[in-house]
């Protein structure tokens, strides 16, 4: 299955397909420019030391085209990347960045239309001298991410689909999306109201 196919569906649909809460990054990691497109692809994981961005800068030359570089920064005091790094990654076929940390040169990144999800902006760049790792297990936005897991990110949130579950989750999400597409608002409202009233009755709500 082509990883790019996962971009057909929003993280919301994957949530409705019973992908667990533990697979969705916290809301602090958000799109860094308006109307950012949905991205999907296999994760290439990076871990950086506090105040240092060396491993992210190394990753843009090592990750395969079609990858999403997912970064656990050491802090939010120093930028992990700027305009030139994003432009080079884009040129090399990287789909986007998901960073548990901050970036700089947001205007340049917006003009490039390179998708970046991060915690915010900081003008001060990190150094390139510390330790870190590539393609190891990381925690990003509260979610465990391994290289090869499928990342789906848009304005609704960021889902991480474990590599071993990708076909099962895709099938469930696709079926859910197709079911929703065939249901009118009137049908949805009728079913929803009946469900709500049934639950209220079950819990003994009076009102």
TrEMBL record:
InterPro entries from the UniProt entry: RraA/RraA-like (IPR005493), RraA/RraA-like_sf (IPR036704)
Catalytic activity field: oxaloacetate + H(+) = pyruvate + CO2; 4-hydroxy-4-methyl-2-oxoglutarate = 2 pyruvate
Keyword Metal-binding: yes
CDD domains: RraA_family
Positions that bind substrate: 82-85, 104
EC numbers for this chain: 4.1.1.112, 4.1.3.17
Enzyme class of the recorded protein, top EC level: lyase
Highest taxon of source: Bacteria
Family label: Belongs to the class II aldolase/RraA-like family.
Subunit structure, interactors included: Homotrimer.
PANTHER family named in the record: 4-HYDROXY-4-METHYL-2-OXOGLUTARATE ALDOLASE 3-RELATED
Protein name: Putative 4-hydroxy-4-methyl-2-oxoglutarate aldolase
Organism from which the protein derives: Adonisia turfae CCMR0082
Organism phylogeny: Bacteria, Bacillati, Cyanobacteriota, Adonisia, Adonisia turfae
